[in-house]
Design brief:
The structure is a single chain. The protein is α/β, with parallel strands linked by helices and 403 residues long. It has two domains: 199 residues, 3-Layer(aba) Sandwich (Rossmann fold); 186 residues, 3-Layer(aba) Sandwich (Rossmann fold). The strands form four sheets. It has a seven-stranded parallel beta sheet, with helices on both faces. Strands 14-13-12-15-16-17 form a six-stranded parallel beta sheet, with helices on both faces. The chain is elongated.
Length: 403
């Protein structure tokens, strides 16, 4: 049995069911080490601009503990929380392998150093791909040097998708050290919930009448998510620039851009735009089931798990080419479209194509469901198991590394 310690910043709604699934493996003894547990209770989310309390279970079904910390613990940044004792936990916790979720917190880097000095194996799972960050040429060159040095001390990389794998390869990681552990959601729960909701559920809630197509945006209303791109494309769906488009446009989410978007919609005087606000995990499947297409036009998007969620409801998707999920989850013209970030003309064309052809939308939706059904927690467990097998052997008594 492999004694595995997973170090992650905080309880994450998408990860909890995966951790429960891993804990069921008889050959893996999993302990999750959180740097803080603030998301397990009501907290203020700066991105949504409001208090959030997740309505799904984040902590049951697996072993976990919260590492001690000094000072403020209700947010996560490089120095927050100021975790203490991570070295002691790594060296005295009787672990074989340390699994790090990212490297953007000082505790993760300290854990890496402690693990290598102890002679333990280290796995890394991150989200970065080549367009997920914006940096100058100089900073990019410096970062590449730093990452190459850092990655030399990692024994196995758990790639969340193709773009993430390619990022590791571009930083000198050997292909045999990379194992696919796809970014997945609880497919079973989302599919069951979507089946349980009829289209009229959302229509009645939002006052949508007739059998008009529904375009859905479900993300934080922030500049980086580019909701204005979708708004501009939607304006162009107007038959004459004055009358409202035939499809409805539904924004799900909160954020800094909501007020301005609402004001713009009000000036248009169209009754075809709705702002549904923040919706919790158990509420979202109804919106996905009602939508004819989901759009995520973000720039610098590490993955975009909303794409997974919508596809589980059998919904076509349109994403920008800077969305990490695009390479693996969107097959051009089959279950959706990938458009260059900021290309309003192409986004408009793709929206018109799907919303004007119900037969095509249904076909694309069926392809979405079939495709996402293979991108699941079982694939995650298989990838993690392969990584543990490949890096096992001598982890408790191996030669300690200098770092």
């Amino acid at each position: 049995m492999t004694r595995l310690a997973y170090i992650v910043s905080h309880p994450i709604q998408y990860q909890a069911p995966l951790l429960r699934r891993i804990a069921m493996e008889k050959d893996i003894h999993l302990t999750v080490l959180f740097l803080t547990d603030f998301t397990s209770r009501p907290y203020g989310d700066t991105g949504f601009g409001q208090a959030i309390s997740w309505d799904v279970d984040l902590l049951s079904g697996y072993r976990w503990k919260v590492l001690p910390a000094w000072g403020y613990r209700d947010s996560v940044a490089f120095w927050k929380p100021l975790t203490v004792g991570v070295e002691q936990e790594v060296t005295s916790g009787n672990y074989d392998v340390i699994w790090l979720h990212g490297y953007a917190h000082q505790a993760h880097l300290r854990a890496l150093v402690a693990a290598k000095r102890r002679g333990l194996k280290v796995l890394l799972r991150g989200e970065t791909h080549k367009t997920s960050t914006r940096q100058s040429v100089l900073r990019s060159a410096i970062k590449k040097i730093v990452m190459r040095r850092l990655f030399r001390h990692v024994d196995g990389f758990l790639a969340i998708g193709t773009a993430n794998r390619d990022y590791y390869l571009s930083h000198g990681v050997a292909p045999e050290k990379i194992f696919m552990m796809p970014y997945a959601v609880d497919n079973e729960r989302f599919q069951a919930a979507a089946i349980g909701h009829a289209r009229h559920t959302v229509a009645d809630m939002l006052g949508l009448t007739g059998n008009r197509p529904i375009i859905l945006y479900a993300s934080k209303l922030q500049r980086r998510k580019r909701p204005w791109d979708l708004w501009t494309a939607y304006e162009r769906l107007s038959p004459n620039g004055v009358d409202e488009p035939i499809p409805y446009l539904v924004f799900v989410g909160e954020g800094s851009e909501r007020q301005a978007l609402e004001a713009m919609a009000a000036r248009k005087g169209w009754n075809s735009v709705r702002f549904a606000g923040f919706r919790n995990q158990t509420e979202l499947p109804a919106f996905y089931a009602a939508a004819d297409v989901l759009v995520l036009p973000s720039e610098r998007e590490p993955w975009g798990l909303v794409i997974n969620e919508a596809m589980n409801a059998g919904t076509p998707v349109i994403v920008s080419d800077q969305v990490g999920a695009a390479v693996d989850l969107v097959e051009e013209g089959v279950n959706g479209y990938v458009v260059p970030v900021g290309d309003i003309e192409m986004l408009t064309s793709r929206l018109r194509c799907i919303t004007s052809n119900p037969t095509l939308a249904r076909s694309m939706g069926a392809s979405s469901l079939a495709r996402i059904s293979r991108w699941d927690f079982e694939a995650d467990v298989a990838g993690l198991t392969q990584a543990l097998a490949a890096t096992s052997g001598g982890s408790r008594c191996g030669q300690a590394s200098t770092i």
